[in-house]
Each structure stands twice: as C-alpha cells, then as structure tokens.
Amino acid sequence: MTQRPVVAHAVLVHGAGAGGWEWTIWRGVLAAHGVEALALDLAAHDAVAATTFDDYRAQVAAALAALPRPRVLAGASLGGLLAAACADATDALVLVNPMPPAPWAGQLPRRDWPDVVPWGRDARLDGTRRALGDADDASALRALRGWREESGAVLRAAQDGIEVERPGCPVWFAAGGADNDVPVGATRAWASAWEAPLHELPGAGHVEPLLGRRAAGVADAAARWLVATLSPR
Q1: What domains can you pick out in the chain, each with its CATH number?
Q2: Which of 42, 53, 155, 196 shows the greatest Cβ crowding within 10 Å of its Cβ?
Q3: Is residue 116 helix, strand or coil?
C-alpha cells in the first residue's frame, strides 16, 4: 500500500481540565489526510492553583517549535485560546469552540472560578454524558477517567480577556451552535474579524466537535482545508 505523503505536522491542544485524549478521533482523521499530529498533555504545577496561562502558553510554543514545517496548531476551548496566542510561529491555525480573546471574551458567561477547579475529583458518569452530548459510551467512559483538576487562575485570565493579535497564517474555525460555554455568537464575531471560514454544527455543544458522533466529519472538514491550504500549488 502506498503511504500518504506527509502534508504537515500538528500540535493539538486540549481544553481546560482535559488532556490529549480529547483528540483521539481527530488524530486518526488527520493522519488519513497526511497530517501527523501530536496531542499535547498540558502539565500543571504540583500546586495546581499556581499554574498560569503563560505556563501553558510556553508548553504549546515549545511543542510547536520542535516540529518541522509546515506546522499546524489546533486548539479546542482553552486550547484554542492558547493556540491563537502562539499563532505567530505556525503555518495554519484550527480553532474548535475556542475561548475567545479580548474583546470577544466579554461575551463569555461570567463564572467565579475557585483557585482549583475540581473537575477530576467531582467527575460523574451522568454529568460527563450530559457534557458530551451525543458521544458514544466508550468516549464518555474515557472522558470520565481523563478529567483532571484545573487552575482557576488560568480560567480567570482567559475570562478577563487575553490580548491576541491577528496572525499572518490562515485560520479555520469550528463551533457548536448549542455551546453553552463559548457562545457561538462570540466565535462568529471573532471569525468574521479575522476573515476566516467558520464551520458550524447546529445543535452541537462544547465538546461534541471533538468527541461526538459528528466529530469525524468536523475533523475531515478541517483536514481537507489544511491540505488545500498547505499543499504546494
């Protein structure tokens, strides 16, 4: 069998309280299109509350710098904001239900984040199923085992609004139309300001584009865009 040539290398950045496991479906689809992807596991400090947005941003930048070009950054939720903050060193950017930077961060629901958000400790199967929408049982169980505690300082900084400059590289957005964590209107406004395409999933929640039954289709749309954008003319 002829091996598909490598089109690009990618770093995939997960959302708050999660891990690289969120990207399992996407990694398989991207590989089928010639995009080799590393699903990063962000590392908090031993004292989780001491972890900052810049700690995570440095990890994303280091992982990206280790890849050959062309290279791609893809991020979901908090990972989307981290990816956007490191976009000056990438050749293409894929953002999935991303937490928006300033000024669109003002559209996020206001939450009083504690110093340590106990998602891992408090995880329950019924709550995980609700969060994942139409994901299958295997995905729900994997998520239940994968949730971890998160730094409230990171989430408070993101909620207050991180300043991010529009990158020079192409950008592609995906958003769930029923996302209660990142309103689709904020993503629409951000994508419009950056003159970037937006792939919307009507009725989808926050994590369904990664773990739901339509996740492979979203990943395929992103992969086709990457191949068309990065392949030599």
Answers
A1: 8-230 (3.40.50.1820)
A2: 42
A3: strand
Q: Which residues contact 103 (CB under 8 A, 6 or more apart)?
A: 161
Q: Are 89 and 64 in contact (CB under 8 A)?
A: yes
CA gyration radius, the chain? 16
**CB–CB of 183/125 below 8 Å?**
no
pLDDT digits (tens, 9 = 90+) for 4-14: 788 999 999 99
Alpha-carbon distance of 115 to 57, in angstroms, equals 19
How many Cβ atoms sit within 10 Å of the Cβ of residue 93? 23
pLDDT tens digits along 139-160: 666 765 767 899 999 999 999 9
Tell me whether residue 69 is exposed, middle or buried, using C-beta atoms within 10 angstroms of its C-beta: 0 to 12, 13 to 18, 19 or more.
exposed
CB-based contacts of 9, cutoff 8 Å, min separation 6: 35, 36, 37, 38, 67, 68, 69, 70, 71, 72
Say how far apart CA 59 and CA 53 lie, in whole Å.
Answer: 10
pLDDT, tens digit (0-9, with 9 covering 90-100), for 163-220: 999 999 999 999 999 999 999 999 999 999 999 999 999 999 999 999 988 999 999 9
9, 35 in Cβ contact below 8 A?
Answer: yes
43 Cβ contact partners less than 8 Å away, ≥ 6 residues apart: 59
Indicate the pTM of the whole model. 0.93
